[in-house]
UniProtKB/TrEMBL annotation:
GO terms for molecular function: ATP binding; protein kinase activity. InterPro entries: Kinase-like_dom_sf, Prot_kinase_dom. This is Protein kinase domain-containing protein. It comes from the Eukaryota. SUPFAM superfamilies: Protein kinase-like (PK-like). Residues 117-526 form the Protein kinase domain.
Length: 538
């Protein structure tokens, strides 16, 4: 691979903070991602620590995000946090371990706060915890047999499934998993207990069962491609309150199959990490750039041409960004994340932005949004500027207020996903492909419009690869210069024909090339480099 600069370690090489009772994997503000050692499998339970306790610990000295190296994991601040977690789990007045083991999956959290304790020396300050149960996720889950019926994988097709590999993957109970590292809010690294090979897998879930099953259906239905996330290896099920009361599924043949619902799935673990992280930590060779450009274009073209739904439309992929491109052990790209949740604003073409605004993202904030029911003004509460007071003077005209609030919303969108629909009802029952959620633009656009939008996003990622830029999310809403200023580093080594077609991909919709046209250019470029290498070796 490329020349190394400083680098983050693979998860299994990181020395995570631990004291034999707990292991810490990272934090997101006051939310701590940690696992007690009395349980081996992941429940996706976060620990919320009260702000002044974090100040007392010295939380600012602990980097935000998931731990990716061992530089500070032995610091006294992590040790203080570990001691805090050990104290709450060993509280003799509260059956913490017993409660934790029965907590519902992926919808619960632990709150840690100060308490006042009276001892021999008077009243002192201690900590106490509460476990908050949430059952919406489990209430919205479906069993394997129900999903099989909804997706058309009937019992009569079981033999065909075994012969072709198409159908439902094998099932493993959650309790068989061993947590090895925490990679993302909804992704952990696991192994399967009792296996001699100790193979690592990525365990993926979601806060919404509907979105989880939508992604799972996409991955099971899509024809395989060497540069796309492989088909899930296993489905993960969990015993719930409902499955305990009704152990046999009435949807199964003769009611002989268990009713434990699917809470996630396992996919191969790609040890190379994200392309964003690689570009940030390594020097990329020209050969790598050519190979990755071809692989990424090929993956998108495959989705567009061969992964359409039963409605006859071409396939579409709305989540393209550098974070969602990972590297396998051989250094080849793999496209991940098929939740259909959109991407960052900087990777989003103007026509998608327009469609999002057309859904009322602005107009619904303009009137009646203050506590008094009147149009908000400077310093008052406003749904656009929230949680901050409104930043727009009240004496502005309607159009001026609209423009000013659009700038505020654009900034907020630049910090979050461009597609932010109302949160799916986690407790609602999944009803199959007809009920899959549609996001603005992508659900209603024509094949040509979706192809053009995917071309734009591809152009953004190719620009990052060619210019050695890890990600666009921190570069503002209008990140790229126009014309001849588009390319700086790339013009020194990348062929003009390649730069030209990528530049066209970042133009208006009518002027963009097709994915197929970009693919042919990238294929010729990589082929020329391979031929040149062969000639030099001879």
């Amino acid at each position: 691979m490329g020349t190394i600069i400083p680098t983050n370690l693979p998860p299994m090489e990181v020395e995570y903070p631990t004291n034999g009772q707990w292991t810490i994997y990272g934090r997101n503000g006051p939310n701590i991602y940690a696992q007690p050692h009395f349980i081996s499998y992941p429940l996706f339970v976060t620990i919320f620590v009260q702000g002044d306790i974090l100040v007392h610990i010295g939380i600012d000295a602990i980097p935000n995000g998931f731990i990716r190296n061992s530089l500070h994991t032995k610091s006294r601040y992590y040790q203080r946090l570990l001691k805090l977690l050990t104290n709450i789990s060993q509280d003799k007045g509260y059956p913490f371990e017993q409660e934790y083991k029965t907590i519902p999956f992926n919808d619960s959290h632990i709150s840690v706060r100060w308490s006042w304790e009276k001892g021999a020396g008077g009243i002192g300050k201690g900590v106490e915890s509460d476990i908050y149960w949430g059952s919406k996720f489990e209430d919205g889950t479906r069993s394997v047999i129900v999903l099989r019926n909804l997706w058309g994988f009937g019992r009569e097709d079981c033999r065909k499934e075994l012969e072709t590999g198409i159908g439902m993957p094998a099932v493993i109970p959650l309790t068989k998993l061993q947590l090895r590292a925490w990679l993302h809010d909804t992704v952990v690294l696991v192994s399967i207990s009792g296996r001699d090979d100790n193979t690592l897998y990525a365990f993926k879930t979601n806060q919404s069962p509907q979105v989880l099953y939508q992604e799972l259906h996409t991955l099971l239905s899509m024809p395989p491609h060497p540069n796309i996330l492989e088909r899930p290896c296993y489905l993960i099920t969990k015993q719930t309150a409902h499955s305990i009361q009704h152990p046999l599924d009435p949807a199964s043949l003769y009611c002989l199959e268990p009713t434990e619902p699917v809470v996630g799935f396992l996919t191969p673990y790609y040890s190379g990490g994200s392309l964003k992280n690689y570009v940030n930590n390594y020097e990329i060779t020209l050969k790598q750039k050519a190979r990755w450009a071809l692989q990424l274009t090929s993956a998108l073209l495959h989705i567009y041409e061969y992964s359409g739904g039963s409605d006859g439309k071409c396939g579409r992929y709305s989540a393209l960004k550098m974070d969602n491109i990972v590297l396998d052990a051989a250094g080849n790209l793999r496209l991940i994340d098929f939740e259909s949740a959109g991407t960052w604003v900087q990777y989003t073409p103007i026509e998608v932005m327009t469609a999002v605004r057309a859904k009322g993202r602005i107009s619904r904030f303009m009137s009646g949004s203050s506590d008094t029911g009147t149009t908000p003004g400077l310093g008052e509460k406003c749904k656009v500027c929230s949680p901050h007071p409104c930043s727009v003077p009240k004496d502005m005209t309607g159009q001026e207020r609209q423009a000013a609030h659009e700038k505020v919303l654009d900034y907020k969108l630049s910090q979050t996903s461009i597609i932010s629909p109302s949160k799916p009802n986690s407790g609602a029952q999944y009803t199959g492909p007809p009920g899959h959620k549609k996001i603005p633009f992508w659900g209603d656009a024509s094949d040509a419009e979706c192809g053009a939008a995917m071309t734009w996003m591809l152009g953004c990622c190719l620009w990052c690869i060619f210019e050695d830029v890890p990600c666009l999310s921190g570069m503002g809403n209008y990140w790229f210069p126009v014309g001849n200023m588009l390319w700086k580093k790339a013009r020194q080594s990348v062929p003009v024909a390649v730069l030209k077609i990528v530049g066209k991909a970042l133009q208006t919709k009518a002027d963009r090339p097709t994915l197929r046209e970009i693919y042919e250019v990238m294929k010729s470029w990589e082929g020329a480099l391979i031929l040149k290498q062969v000639e030099n070796e001879e």
